[in-house]
Design brief:
With 242 residues, the chain is an alpha/beta fold. The protein contains 5 helices and 13 strands. Helix 3 (91-102) links the parallel strand 5 and strand 6. The protein is globular and about 50 Å long. It starts with a strand and ends with a helix.
Length: 242
């Protein structure tokens, strides 16, 4: 498939696909909250929709857990949990999502996706870690651990930015770390030298799981580098489409 670059108003070069006869990828952005509700969710959703318009994937937004049925989920090549919190799916919906992933579906978690479904062990394995705590919003140095990976290849080796930085628990040994935090560069880190903040893994069903801890603030979604990070995470996940 041929590729070209397009310059958009934010100053970010966004990767675009030339039109082909291939079916357009469909992405479900799920943003239900049963705990803390992030004010950045509408901005994050709008950003993902705009990226979809520019890059040949169609985005559907919902906070309705009733959309998690086998028949509905099979329409989508990727499901994004955008700052979901708490117990957002019932047992039947959980089973439908497990089946979707087992058949090659893909998952992308953003920010509070790790603050979700603490009692569902399968989900904890899928997302890769759980939220523990966070200090105040502040600037920190983010270290690019896999500079050749497309989700982070555009970033400098040390990426300095401001966000809400999660401390984590139950970090899965299965994850491949893309970005980590330098805890000496900010106050309140609790994971020490092993402090991942973005990662991915290949799933047994053939799909992919990827997560980024950024995106608490509305301002994050206007950062060109963060926008491109989101885009490349999505495109990476869609490589594993069913």
């Amino acid at each position: 498939m041929k590729l070209f670059f397009r310059l958009v108003f934010s100053g970010l070069f966004v990767l675009n696909f030339l039109p082909t006869a291939a079916q357009e990828n469909r992405v479900l952005v799920f943003n239900k909250t049963e705990g803390y509700h992030h004010e950045s969710i509408p901005t994050g959703t709008a950003t993902i929709k705009n990226l979809g318009d520019l890059n040949n994937f169609k985005v559907t937004e919902t906070d309705d857990a009733g959309q998690f049925t086998e028949n509905n989920l099979k329409k989508y090549q990727l499901v994004i949990f955008l700052s979901t919190t708490g117990n957002v799916l019932n047992e039947a919906q959980q089973k439908a999502f497990e089946n979707y992933i087992s058949k090659g579906g893909n998952f992308f978690g953003i920010h509070a996706a790790t603050d979700t479904e603490y009692d569902w062990k399968w989900y904890g394995d899928l997302v890769g870690a759980y939220f523990l705590s966070h200090p105040k919003i502040q600037e920190a140095n983010v270290i690019v651990e896999k500079p050749l990976h497309p989700a982070v290849a555009h970033l400098p080796k040390i990426w300095t930015r401001t966000d809400e930085w999660y401390n984590l628990k139950e970090i899965s040994p299965k994850i491949n770390v893309l970005l980590s935090l330098d805890e000496t560069s900010y106050e309140g880190g609790e994971n020490g030298e092993n402090h991942p903040i973005a990662w991915y893994r290949e799933l047994e069903g053939g799909g992919k799981s990827i997560y980024t801890g950024g995106g608490h603030t509305e301002e994050s979604y206007s950062e060109p580098a963060f926008q491109k990070h989101l885009l490349q995470c999505i495109l990476f996940a869609l490589e594993g489409k069913k």
